Amino acid sequence: MPETFVHKFDTPVFKGTVEIPTGIFINGKFVDGSDGGKIDVINPTNGKLITRVSEGTPKDVDTAVEVAQKAFDTVWGHNTPGFERGRLLYKFAELLEQHADEFAAVEALDNGKTFSWAKKADVAMSIGTFRYYAGWADKIHGNTIETSKEKIVYTTHEPLGVVGQIIPWNFPLMMLSWKLGPALAAGNTVILKPSEFTPLTALLAAKLSLEAGFPPGVINIVNGYGSTVGNAISTHMHIDKVAFTGSTIVGRKVLEASAKTNLKETSLELGGKSPNIIFDDCDLEQAVDWTIHGIFWNHGQACCAGSRIFVHAKIYDEFLRRFTEQSKKLKLGDPFNPDTYQGPQVSQQQYDRIMEYIDSGKQQGAKVHLGGERWGNEGYFIQPTIFTETSKEMKIVQEEIFGPVGVVIKFQDDDDVIRQANDTIYGLAAAIFTKNIDRALTCSQKLRAGTTWINCANQLHPQVPFGGYKQSGIGRELGEYALEHYTAVKAVHINLGHTI
């Protein structure tokens, strides 16, 4: 039997004890992985061990698929009406709200994000997402279609069956809600793989699903590595759909695995290199505040981060002065300190990757205007970093860094900035700052991005679709649009006595 991780929090923002089973979660039970392996979970603030969780294997994925299929055939899907699926999702949201502080504390411990942001963003968004899809569960409707007087034809939107879901480490609980919400509302059963870096809130959520009353086998959580568990999910012949959030490189592998096996339905929410466009007629104070949020929120570990900051030449110097001044005030440190804005990067691996990009920028001739170095003596902290004097061929301009690193680029006119903004393989999000509504809407129309924010940045809502153009992915998360990826449309023809 797997152990239970017990952690006592005694911090300025949360005091309490949290108990988390450390096994994989299959058929409503926490069990050890089939090979008995363990995964170290590391505290990113100091690099020390938090706990170990069971390591799943392809064999465990096979077991999870079997029980998920049985649950789909017997106690879920068409066997559980939409209003009942909605009731369970709503119950889960209620329980999550009751335990909001515990989930926020575990996110801060496991991921390194601040407790305050985890609670008001990650946990709040997750609660809202489960409630939103609870409301949809009995409202997934088809249509009647007129053909001729001899026929009645209608469509139904049916659950796909067993769904595999692979989520990243930057928003562990939030990504779990984005995946589970629409899948369960539509009547599918799920095998979900959390990141090996941040498995704890997924396991805590699995524990909560038992209390909510989900039947065994409907939700299964298999901890593991991408090369083993992730690959097993992507290539499994009896998984009907795979949903992946992560890097574009891995997203290609997931799509390739689907093509080489059973052509399972695939949705991908991938990387970004989002432009943040500051026009000369903007509210400068507003633009500076949102730009900081756009690039430094969640330590820059956001696929939609506004990492390319385009500033009109007329206000470039003043914007840069204010942006630099405000960035210097950001407090780094303990995620449980209420004054902390930025905690550590999630892992040594991610820290090294970001520092390699910073070194690349220096070597290619960009100017480090601010930061660019390690912060503190332990953990994976990186100073908020601003580059200037860049050119378009530089890696820091073209590639997703996924850290607190932004490049500030001067532009002259609207056509020039649209051209530069679209000069990327990505197309996830963009932000525009201007008081001119015509300029804002014209610019938004020309930008090749799945989301455009006007006079704000990094705003997400359960009812609003999120996804990208180009190599930022396939399909959409959230909103009614996400349900399309978890249902199949069936057309039914009823003959009213017509003969051939």
UniProtKB/TrEMBL annotation:
GO CC terms: mitochondrion
Keyword Cell inner membrane: no
A GO molecular-function descriptor: aldehyde dehydrogenase (NAD+) activity
Positions of the catalytic residues: 269
Keyword NAD: yes
Limits of the Aldehyde dehydrogenase domain: 31-492
Swiss-Prot/TrEMBL keywords: NAD, Oxidoreductase
Top-level taxon of origin: Eukaryota
GO term, biological process aspect, one: acetate biosynthetic process
Pathway: Alcohol metabolism; ethanol degradation; acetate from ethanol: step 2/2
Gene3D superfamilies: Aldehyde Dehydrogenase, Chain A, domain 1 (3.40.605.10), Aldehyde Dehydrogenase, Chain A, domain 2 (3.40.309.10)
Family assignment from sequence similarity: Belongs to the aldehyde dehydrogenase family.
Protein name: Aldehyde dehydrogenase family protein
Organism: Phanerochaete sordida
